[in-house]
Structure formats: C-alpha cells, structure tokens
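Input/output pair, single chain:
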Amino acid sequence: MATDKEIVGSVKEQLAKLFEESLRAAFPDVEGVQPMIAICNDPRHGDYQCNNAMSLWNKIKGQGTQFRGPQPVGKAIIDNLPASEMIERCSTAGPGFINVVLKKQWIAKSIERMLIDGIETWAPKLPVERTVVDFSSPNIAKEMHVGHLRSTIIGDTLARMLEFSNVEVLRRNHVGDWGTQFGMLIEYLFDKIPNWEAASAQAIGDLQAFYKASKQRFDNDPDFKERAQKAVVSLQGGEEKYRKAWTQICEISREEFQRVYERLGVHLEEKGESFYNPYIPKALDLLNNKGLIQESEGARVIFIEGKKIPLIVVKRDGGFNYASTDLTALWYRLNEEKADWMIYVTDVGQREHFEMVFAAAKLAGWLPQNENDFPKASHVGFGLVLGDDGKRFRTRSTEVVKLVDLLDEAKSRCKLALEERGKATEWTAEELEQTAEAVGYGAVKYADLKNNRLTNYTFNFDQMLSDKGNTAVYLLYAHARICSIIRKSGRDIEELKKVGGIVLAHPDERALGLHLLQFAEIVEEACINLLPNLLCEYLYKLSEDFTKFYTNCQVVGSAEETSRLMLCEATAVVMRKCFHLLGITPVYKI
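Output:
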C-alpha cells in the first residue's frame, strides 16, 4: 500500500484537475475557463457536479460553433475526460449539468491511505502562506466579558483551521493597554497605595472595581482629573515612575486574562496598542505623503468615499486614537511581519470602523483594490450573546458576567451530571475532572461556533449541556461510543490498518465513506469564508451518517467486521480532527 505522505488535496480539487484537462481538450480556443465543481445537492443524481456547460455555451454561441446548446457542450466535456480511477460514471442533466458518481473502490482506497498516512494528508491547500489572526483583544483593567468569549473562540478556531491547512498563523492579542484611562488608573494607584511598588496584586484587589472607583473620582474631582491628564503625558513621555505603575497594572490584568485562556486552551501572542505606538508617526507620514490626510475642524482626517464622516487619525488635542493605531498595525503586519492575510475578529459593531481603515489602506496602495487579491484584510464580525430574556447577557445585578465564572459553572454542571450517572464510583477523580472539563468547556465553545457568527445567539446552559441534538455533549458521546465499539471488538486497530481493507458494499457504508472524504473541502470552505459553523454542520452530519451506518450494518461479529471497524476508526479520526479544529478535547469513554 502507498505510504506517500504528500497532501492529496480535496476531492473537489482532484476532480477539478481532471475537468481542467477535459475543458482544455474539448475547447482549446476558449481561454480562462476554470472548472466549476460542487457537491451534488441531491445524492440520487450523483456525488459531485461540474457546472461549466451553461457558461461555456454562452461564450461560444454565435461564433460558428458546431455545438447546438449546453447539453452537447456537457457531453463534449464528459467525452474528453482523461481515464481515472476516481470516476465511476458521468451523465448530463437539465441545461448541461454534469453529474459525477465516484468509484466506491476509490473512496475506500482513499480512506485506507488516510488511516496509514494520517489525517494531515487531507489538509486543504490554500493560496496563502502567512496570516495574522487578531482576536480576543480585551482591555487592560476591565473584565473579559462574553463578547471577548466569542472573539476568543471564533479566532482560535479560524487560527486552528488555517494552521491545519499549513498556513503560518501569527495569533495576535491586540489588548487595549494604552490611552487616556491609564492616567486616572495610575494616579488612583499612587493615592490609594502609597507604597505601590512593593504592593501585591491582592493589595490592588479587583481591577474592575479599581477601574470604577478611579473613573468615579475622575468624573467628580477636578483636581484629580487634572493630575490624571498630566499623568498620561508623563506616561507617554516615558517617565520611569509612570511606566512602572503602568506595567504593574497591565501585569495584574494579564494574569486575569490568562485564567480564561488556560481554561479555553487558547494560545495568543500579545502585541497591544502600546506596541504600535512608536510606529504611528511613520505610518501617518506615509499616509500624509500620499496626500490622504486633511485638516478638518481641528482634527486630522482621511475622507473615505461613500462614508458620511471621515476617519479621524489625529484628534483635536493632537492625540492618537483607534484609527491611527489600527492603520499602523495594518502597515506593520504587511511590511514587518509580511502577512498575506490579516483577519480581525470583533463584534459586528466595529464593521464600519474596519471598512474605513481598509479603505484608507487601499487609497494608500498598501492593499490591492480587488477584494480577492492578496495581501488582503478581512473583518470577521459576530453578533451578540443574549440571555433567555432576549437581551444582552448579564448577571442579575446588570453586571457583565465574568468569563472564568461562566466556564467554571459549565464544568461543575457537567461534573454533577456525571456524578448523577454514577461515574464518581466508576472513574478516578482525575478522569471525572478531565471529562467534566472537556465536556463543559467544549459545550460552551460549540454552542457559539455552530451558529453563523453574524447572528446573535442565546446563552443557555440547559440547551448547550443537553446530550440530544446538535450539541458538543451529543457529539463527544458519539465519539466515545465509536471508541467503545472498537475496544469491545478486541481487535488491534493499528494492525487492521496495515493488513485490512475497506469494502463499501452497503449504501450506508458508501454514504459514510463519501462524507468522510469531503472533510478537506469543508475545512477549505470554512477557512475561505471565515465561517466555523460550516465545520460544525459537517461534524453533526458525520455523526448522523455514522448512526445510520451502525444501525443498518452490524460491525462486531459480522463477515465484514474488519472493513467496518476500519470505517469506525476513520470516523473517529475525522471526528477528533474536527474537535481539535474547534478547540474541543475529545472524550474516549462515557
């Protein structure tokens, strides 16, 4: 059996190569025709379809062609297909649609190869080498809330899918660690804790409360307000005492953020607003030299066509703002980090801001005019997290919910459910803890990721922790059941991979095999469209296809046991990779 570890490309990509040859042979005079391959909507007609005939006919009709409509065009494409182990048969339907049925032997061989060479050989091939994913990005001295949860979960999954696709990903945490609020925080620190340099994080206490108290003082005490404004100047001027105090406040915040990231299993590299601050004058000079920056009502702005208000890059008081920082970060990522694609994961409320930043970058010639050309920048917006009342998710005291508390509650509810099922006596304390963690945190992530990110979604523990329907709990248990089937067979699955073969005789075996094979193109589509929910839909459908197969095809003790166990293993391997891409830890027993 072949042990060539090369990435084979998706089925769609492999079919596209065959149809590209055919299109060239059948229509050598028509230039720039790209194969249009799609999964068949109705499996009764075929597995895939090629949809080039109609558009080709529109190009060649009236030019003395021998063809008399899209159907003969479709037939010519079929007749010119090179010989292949892949295709069983092709047929035309309607206005020249070409339906393709794959050979089940080829599907089986492809799965056998993946089991030996590894799921990495099914990674999609993307037209990009280095990507910046800018996500999470909380503000120093403020609590991380459910909006940051969405950004963190969505951003991490996009980064994981790109990394699986062999793209170098720079995971960037653009924290809010610079700005006028630090003046009041530093002055309040000096007033409240005179020996602040020796003080511990406990002495400062809850940073959120500390922030609120300093803000109240700022709003009500003119003398304090004046000192706070001077403190900003001292900090930005690099005065050591102020830089030290700023560093201390940032460090306490980072420790809070890290507690969330550890629970979620998320890794980020921090490059906050302060990192880009020294580069702002240079970036603004570049924009100014292009004649893009103009004076307007005392501020310096860039006018963007189609927008009612300009993009302010220097405020009236001469200070910089989000736009100046974001334009500079974009410049840095393009020129210093050499990124092909910059992805910004924030709530939909910031869409217009990023549209204007990207438009300014295009005016400056930093980004190409065509949206599809690289390098490019994309804003990944997401909707709100709602409570059961349909309003923004908060605690009873109208405070935003602490993320650490939210995640811990999901875990403790899972642990309780497992204890009620008697697992505390069956499992070790460590097994119980790890399973509760995997299922609890996984449930929170999946409840978010399964929705189209642009929609609002309702945060409901009972729904997300249900073991029925499209939930992480159901899917994790489905995976554990597959592992249990393999264990109970008593067979050595690693040995079976080497010597066994897969036969897809039953229609439900073939349907499962075909769906497994479509994994690569689903990941590719989810990456290109920046939509993690497509992977969730794939995973849920995979579990449904497996249930149908297992219901109608006896595995253990059947004449087809070896083949069907290998199909079970292939399903478990693909499920585990889906979980990994979604940042969910699989469980192996329930």
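The first strand starts at residue 37 and ends at 39. Residues 180-266 form one domain.
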